[in-house]
Every structure is written in C-alpha cells, then in structure tokens.
Amino acid sequence: MSLIELKKVSRIYKMGETSIQALADINLDIEQQTFVSFVGPSGSGKTTLLNLIGCLDKPSNGEIKVNNVRVNEFNRKDAAVFRGTNIGFIFQNFNLLPILTVYENVEYPLIMVQNIPEKERRDRVLKYLDAVGMTDQKDKYPSQISGGQKQRAAVARALVSDPKLVLADEPTANLDHKSAFMVIELMRQMQRELNTAFIFSTHDPKIVKEAEIIYTLEDGKLVNREQITNSDINAKEKN
Predict the structure, then answer these.
(1) Could you read off the pLDDT of 85-98 as tens digits, one per residue?
(2) What is the pLDDT of residues 66-91, one digit of tens each?
(3) 8 Å CB contact between 136 and 58
(4) Bridge partner residues of 227 (DSSP)
(5) Domains, the chain, ranges and CATH?
(6) Cα(175)–Cα(98) distance, rounded to whole angstroms?
(7) Residue 187 burial class via C-beta count within 10 angstroms: exposed 0-12, middle 13-18, buried 19 and up
(8) What is the spatial distance between Cα 182 and Cα 54, in angstroms, rounded to a whole number?
(9) Residue 56: phi, psi to the nearest 5?
(10) 229: number of Cβ within 10 Å
(11) How far apart are CA 162 and CA 135, in angstroms?
(12) What is the pTM of this model?
C-alpha cells in the first residue's frame, strides 16, 4: 500500500518577473515502511520535494497524497495538524532548542502539537531516548553534547509522536564519517523495529547506499529509481 503518491507535481518560485522551476512533473509512489533516499546535486530539487511531502510547502501544480490524504489542499492550520500527527522531521542543523534539555527537546512535539498527558509523555520520551542510546544525556543541553548525540536526540524527537513517516534533509551533512554512519544505521534500526518509513536526502555516495530505494533528481526532474535488492541489503548488514 502506498504511503506517498505524487502525480505530475511541479513547483515554480516567483522572483520578481522571473520564474524558477524547482520541480517539474514529478510522479512518485513510495510504499509504507520503506527506507528511501533522494540524491542529486545542489539545486536538483531534493529539499523542495521533501518540503512538499512534509506539508511545509505547496505545489504549483499536481497532486500529493500522504497516508491516503490529499495534502496539497491543506491550509496552513490543517497542514500543521497533519504534520504533528503523521510526520517526523530530522534536520541537517539538528534544530534542537538551546534553552531546553535533551529530554525537553524530545518532549516538545508532544506538548506543542499533540497535547499528550504528562505520564504518557514521560513514558514516550524515555522510550525513545533509550532506543537511540541517549538516556544518560537526557538532562544535558544541546551545547553540552556532540554533533552525533544531537542528531540522535533529533531522531528521538522525530519518532516520539509515533509518525508513519520521517523526513530527513541531509541528516549527516554536519557529522564526521563515523557519526554519520551511526546515525544512518540508527535510522535503519528504527525503521525495522517501528515499521516507520524514512526518506532522507544526501550528497554522500557511501551513505546513500544504505537506502532500500534511491531516487535521483537533476534540474528538478526525477531521472532514475534504483531498487536495492534483498541480497544487497543482507550483504551490507553482514559487513
């Protein structure tokens, strides 16, 4: 069953009298519980595509369905509610609030969007902090932990609302090579254990090989889809 469907989706930005086409006639079908990567050079449309799927932007043309809901028709309020209950986000720059502890950063979506009761919030936050190996860092502030630890906290924050989909825009760009692989492996582990779909963009050719499906974009167009076979995945896991 499809989790994400895009039909003839385009995005055109206006800059004065100039029109810039960020995406052109994108057709896309992504199933539930998959681990997907968008790749391509800077300016190819990866971030724009993630923003459209994540209801952070609206297409100029075409139809977008997420979890069988036509999200391109949402107003700002409806989009925010849908994001808060269906989609988690992991950002390149972590986007942790500096005045909150790791625990409070992970808890934040449950307070701001879902209004979860305190006991349930605590149970959920501790569950996901434990899952990403950050329980012992829960009382520290972002300035007191490493980049890899920040991104682990960001993964926990993305998952705490039990979303069907997690979107990650260049999640390893600000990490050293070892930390980058640890974060990607953590995302794969969470995908397998929680049956959550992950879509991430990357420039790193080594990181992208961890995906199950790879979509390549060039100049706003989808130019290739590569399916990684089960034998390839099993071989990577053995290594």
Answers:
(1) 899 999 989 999 99
(2) 999 999 989 999 999 899 889 999 99
(3) no
(4) 213
(5) 32-60+86-238 (3.40.50.300)
(6) 19
(7) buried
(8) 25
(9) -90, -10
(10) 9
(11) 19
(12) 0.90
